[in-house]
Structure formats: structure tokens, C-alpha cells
Amino acid sequence: SIIMHMKGTPQTMQQNPSYEDVVSEVMAFLRERIAEAVEAGLPEEFIIIDPGVGFGKTVSHNLAIIRELADFKAIGRPILLATSRKGFIGKITGVQQASERVEGTAATVALGIANGANIVRVHDVREMTRVARMADAVARGV
After folding, report:
1. I need a labelling partner for 35 at 20 to 30 A (CA). Which of 12, 48, 77, 79 fits?
2. Spatial contact of 56 and 13, defined as CB atoms under 8 Å apart
3. What total number of domains does the chain contain?
């Protein structure tokens, strides 16, 4: 099971999202949801965490999560990073067409893996498989 952070609802999540410390707050949310899931009977080893890049976060929040992704390893669960073609990539690169955000996605995938992502969700599978293999080789010597 994947536990993902999202502030608000899909209808309200991008209406002025604010955090004192986005990484700490997202980590606290994930820890609480893991505890609830385990208490409800889900074995902890079946849980994957997703910090929810793009869900109730500003560009700065998304970048902080990717930059500080290694902090999430303290939770002790595999980390899924889903940045593929997201709007924050378009805002930074100026690429409006989501399907054209391949290079920006590649950068976030490589940095995410270098910073501890175990799983990446992507649209451009062939290209990102190559990026992931290279990032893994550099980061982990695989």
C-alpha cells in the first residue's frame, strides 16, 4: 500500500498551500498515517511512502522535498517519488506542454534516486529507465 501526503482535497490543495517546514510536516503526516494503517491491521512491511510532490505544495515546497528526500529514509519505509511531467517542472523550465517535460523529469528522477528514492513513477518509461539505471550506478554503485 502507498501512503501519500496531500494537503487539503484535490479541489483545494493548490489554494495557497503553506507550511512552517514542509519536510518535517510531511514526514509527521506520513508517520501518523503509517501508525493508523498498522493499527488497522496492515503489516508495516507492505507500506510505501510518497511525499506527494505536486499535491498541495508550491514550487519551493516540491524542490525542498526532492532536495531533502534522504530525510524521509528515517521513516524506514521505501520511498516512491512521482515527479513525472508535473507542473512545477513546467514553471521552472518554461515548458508548458506536459509531454515535453522529459528533461525536467529526468533531472528530478536522477536527483530523487541520488537522495534516496526507491521507486519512481514516470510517464516516459524507456527514457526514465535509462536515467534511473545511471543514477543508481552513480549513487549506489549498482
Report:
1. 12
2. yes
3. 1
